[in-house]
Amino acid sequence: MSRATAAAVAACLVAVAACERPAPPVRIGIHSAPVDLDPHLQNESLTSAVLANVYEALTELDEETRVRPKVASGWTNPDERTWVFTLRQGARFHDGRAVTSADVVFSLERARRHPGSPLASYLVEVESVRALDEGRVEIRTRRPFAALLAKLTPVYIVPAGSPARITAPIGTGPYRLVRADGRRLDLVPAATAGDRPTAIGPLSFLVERDPARRLSALLAGEVDVAADLEEDAVATLASSDCCRAEFLPGSTIEYLHLSGREAPFRDPRVREAIHLSLDRPRYLAEARHGLGQPAGQLAVPGLFGYEPGLRAPERDLARARALLEAAGYAGGFDVVLEHRPGRRADVLARQLGEAGIRVVTRESTWTDLYRRLRRGEVGFYFGGVISPTGEASDVLDGYVHSREELRGYGASNHSRYSNRTADALIEAAGSSFSLVRRRELLQEAMRVVMADLHFVPVAGLYQVYGVRRDVEFRPRVDLKLLGDRIRRR
Questions:
Q1: pLDDT in tens, 198-221
Q2: Torsion of CA 251, 256, 261, 263, to 10 degrees
Q3: Annotated domain spans of the chain
Q4: Are 331 and 321 in contact (CB under 8 A)?
Q5: Contacts 24+ apart (CB under 8 A), 202-205
Q6: CA separation for the pair 464, 247 (Å, rounded)
Q7: From 450's CA, which of 169, 330, 417, 440 has a CA 20 to 30 Å away?
């Protein structure tokens, strides 16, 4: 063999070895582990953002929040109450089983009927689900329901016959789970993802509760993407050679949840006093470095159903103190405000203290706090709510409507709030096929809810991410962290 030939063979071997060398994992820093691995037993944004790599729904939202097919390849409407979905050819679960209409029917009925499912609120207008044949599913709605395609996006498909609680996920997504504990989740490309247009490597989610430490891990090269950073990270990353900031206005509304479990909150004058005690622009300046907007409702501008007339009020401490005095709390009262790591409850506590409301903040891990919220055990809570389908109805159906287990309304109504006028408006909006009328009804429902003030909106937030400069990553309004959309340059 000539020296030139030998050199050529050696070069080929090196090239082959490089191709066969496993790609390094994309590492994403997150604030908490998923609250559950069962896709139908949670409706929590970070958990859904992670599990979206493992599971898929009939439909999905793209980066511009447009609905497109996913497990379904398409759909037709024989009439205004009937939807027929054709399943994607070649769709398979991670164990190799082909996806059939029986799996879709099982999944949708499980999300609707499982006693632990908070996803039922997305399917409140579904009357029936049935298999037409192995590759087609019919969904009938009680009334015309224009939003069905978007409402299906959070409802992931699992194999028929899955147990009452799924602890070993089997989905149709591009990744399968190989490790999950309180500190990290490791995913590897699924063998059934062979029809994906581009090759993907392993994906790891690393849990770090402290946003400052997530930023430090990014700068040290320990993660490739750091999610849910504080707003001051934008300035830090602007001067970094290794990393950059990515941020966009999201659908997240931070709010105070005032449950009737706390005696003072049963009085509407106290709730209004809290509303007027908040200096929202100052909160954004101190806690969010000016990124965000004061909120006067449970929706951000741009969402379908946002009510332009519901603006955040100017702070009025004198009026707030007068309301407290009229309610019998001239000397104020003591209360505990619970929150997860990353929420700046201390800023709101100081503001409420200036009105005489003595607040002690209590930080809990999100896994613990979420479970207690679901059980209705938290009286005063500072948290966030998102609208994953781009509609105010996401919040109104799931978090605001009175709890109705049979129909699925109020599945995430942790405060047990109830207003029958709001319920009627929310249901009427769901049945309207006129977009104009549907928007009007959602706006009217939001006005009714805000008049009650069991939910006190604080701010509409930006989503802030830190990203290594050699990584392509685009934030999404629905907050999903999709590994197959992340590339190394």
A1: 568 999 999 999 999 999 999 999
A2: -150
A3: 56-151, 251-461
A4: no
A5: 202/22, 202/23, 202/24, 202/25, 202/26, 203/25, 203/26, 203/28, 203/53, 203/175, 203/483, 204/25, 204/26, 204/27, 204/28, 205/27, 205/28, 205/29, 205/30, 205/50, 205/481
A6: 4
A7: 330
- Distances 334 to 252, 315, 337, 363, 454 between C-alpha atoms, Å: 28, 21, 10, 17, 18
pLDDT in tens, 455-474: 999 999 889 999 999 999 99
Q: Which residue has the tokens 């004061």?
A: 294
Cα gap 452→256, rounded to integer Å: 13
Helix (H) or strand (E) holding 74: strand 72-79
Q: How many CA atoms lie within 13 A of 365 on its CB side?
A: 12
Phi, psi of 185 (to 5 degrees): -130, 130
Separation of alpha carbons 193 and 178, rounded Å: 16
Fill in the amino acid letter for 319: R
Taking the C-alpha atoms of residue 451 and residue 282, their distance in angstroms, rounded to an integer, is 24
d(Cα 79, Cα 100) in Å, to the nearest integer? 24
463's tokens: 């989503």
Q: Are strands 225-226 and 26-30 parallel, antiparallel or unpaired?
A: parallel
Overall fold of domain 251-461: Dipeptide-binding Protein; domain 3 (3.10.105)
Please, are residues 476 and 62 in contact by the beta-carbon 8 Å criterion?
Answer: no
Distance CA 485, CA 381 (A): 34
CA dihedral 138, 141, 147, 153 (to 10 degrees): -50
Q: Rg for the chain (alpha carbons), in Å?
A: 24
- DSSP character for 320? H
The b-or-e profile of 166-181 (16+ CB within 10 A means b, else e) is beebbbbbbbbbeebe
The encoded tokens of residue 240 equal 């970094």
pTM, rounded to two decimals: 0.78
Please name the residue that has the structure tokens 């955040």: 312
Say if residue 8's pLDDT is above 50.
no
Secondary structure of the chain: what % helix, strand, coil (to 5)? Answer: 30, 25, 45
Give, rounded to a whole angstrom, the gap between the first and last alpha carbons of the chain. Answer: 38
316-361 pLDDT, tens digit per residue, is: 999 999 999 999 999 999 999 999 988 999 999 999 999 999 999 9
CA-CA distance, 454 to 257, in Å (whole number)?
A: 6
Q: Does domain 56-151 have CATH number 1.10.3720.10?
A: no
Amino acid identity for residue 4 in this structure:
A
